[in-house]
Amino acid sequence: MAVRQPHYSKEEFARRGDEIYESQVRQQVEKGNNGKIVAIDIETGDFEVDKSEIAACDRLEARRPDAQIWIIRIGYRHVRRFGGRSRRTA
Known about the structure:
The protein is of the alpha+beta class. It has helices spanning 10-29, 53-63, and strands at residues 37-41, 47-50, 69-73. It starts with 9 loop residues before the first helix and ends in a 17-residue tail after the last strand.
């Protein structure tokens, strides 16, 4: 299996991914999919939605073997969260 090399800097990768999500994908996926993952090919705009990051990326790669994939969690600012949560006290 060949290792895919990124075609863009990290900043350009993120800019393109966010731009495509906001301009082309968000309106199509937001309703009823809160918390799911969107895998977007930043070169073609093709995308897949799934509750699993791996499943969404695998399906997109099956259609676009050379995809440059950016992932977003619908309805959230970040795909993952690190660290613990403090407990709320009433």
